[in-house]
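Example 3.2
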Amino acid sequence: MTSFWNNRKKLLADIRSGRNLAKIKARGKKIRKCPICNKYISEEELEKNSYICKCGGYFPMPALKRIDEIMDASYEVIDFDISFSNKINYPNYDRKYLNAHIRTGLKEAVVLAKGEILSYPCLVFAMEKEFFMGSMALNTGKIIRKAIEIAQENSLPLISFALSGGARMQEGIFFSYADGKYCQRFIKIFAKKFIHFSFNKSHNGWCNGKFCKPRRYNHC
């Protein structure tokens, strides 16, 4: 008897979830499914709630939104003159890159901004999940390396928000050049009492290995 009622409750929950999904689709809105409560929520509602579900579940926040949330209004996004290249002629890489660019409006999987947090000057870079899962590539590494240089030259603390799918397979071994260079740069400047605050997902092992080891303060 208990099994019958449990199955009935599950069926009713599925029906309600389906109705909710149908209503959102009918309004022509983008939808996301919460990984915690499995309920559907519109992108518009997520943005209003800082990408937090009503159940308390967190969604990945777009890089520009992350910077906008944490920094004072006067911040400046630093743009870089970078060009796409398919060094190993990986099939369809150029098409996938173009799709990522159109979808996010970004040139790479990282956004760098200079400004203030509560009137304290700082430099912030955030990874973008919708751009190849925030994976590391040659140009990604160049931007991170430039962020370290700017922070050092201006004596600014660097804050990073990392979420990553690891290495970008479309660039093969070339991603390792970027990886090694910015890690080496981190290690050198830490000897000069450079401050780096690193925030990332604890289950992203690649991020922990690359962003947390060369740091002064870390939060996962």
